[in-house]
Structure formats: structure tokens, C-alpha cells
Amino acid sequence: MAELKTKKTTVSVEDFINTIADEQKRKDCFTILKMMEKATKEKAKMWGPSIIGLCDVHLKYESGRELDWFKIGFSPRKANLTLYISGAVNGQPELIKKLGKYKTSKGCLYINKLSDVNLDVLKQIIEKGLKEKPFHK
Prior knowledge:
Blueprint: H1 13-18, H2 23-40, E1 45-47, E2 51-60, E3 66-76, E4 81-85, H3 93-99, E5 103-104, E6 108-111, H4 119-129
Helix pairs in contact: 3-4
């Protein structure tokens, strides 16, 4: 079985965010970081070169495969901010509808910039997502 390439690192989350060239994206990342750290009451860690994760979990699949991952997190991608929030996409349809401008995939929420969304709704989505099972199945 292939080894997971994305692992927790010792790189500073703040140092990573400060390398983001786009000033608005950098500010948005610090806002998301604060929201997630407040909701989890934990400090974020870097996972691989570009993912910020919180709430470490050990996952075990029915197949027997096991891995260490995080419960919620985000990544400042070139095209958008990618948020990894358990259950946000399928588990919270009423809140998601109130969020604003976003896109989704199976386990991710994509936001171009925080000014496109309702921050109070995003906060609720993060808090409810923490109560869900991790997004990896």
C-alpha cells in the first residue's frame, strides 16, 4: 500500500501564510485560521507544503488502511481558498445555502474570497463540521 505523502510538518503556519503574495488572500487566510483555532481550541499545523490542518485524527478504513489526518483545515490554492470541513457539503444543506458564493466537491468547500460569503454562517459550518466524522471515508 502506498504511503501517504501529505504529513504533518513543523513548518510555522504563520510563516507559510505570510509567504502568500496576494494581500487579500493572505488576510483571508489569517481570518480563517483564527476562526478554526477558536472553534477547535487548538493551534493549527502544516500538513505537507500547503495545507493547514487542525484536530488530528487517526483514521482506519474498512479495508484495514490507517492514516493520520486532520478533522478540519484549509489551503490557499491559486484559484481559491479550499476548506476541508467534515460534513460541510452534504451534512449542512440549509447552512450551505445561506453561505453566499462558493463551490463544492465531495469533501471540500471552495471560496474565492471571504467577502463572497457570510462569515457568521461560515463560523457555524466550521463548528458543526467539528461534530461530524472526518471527511475521508
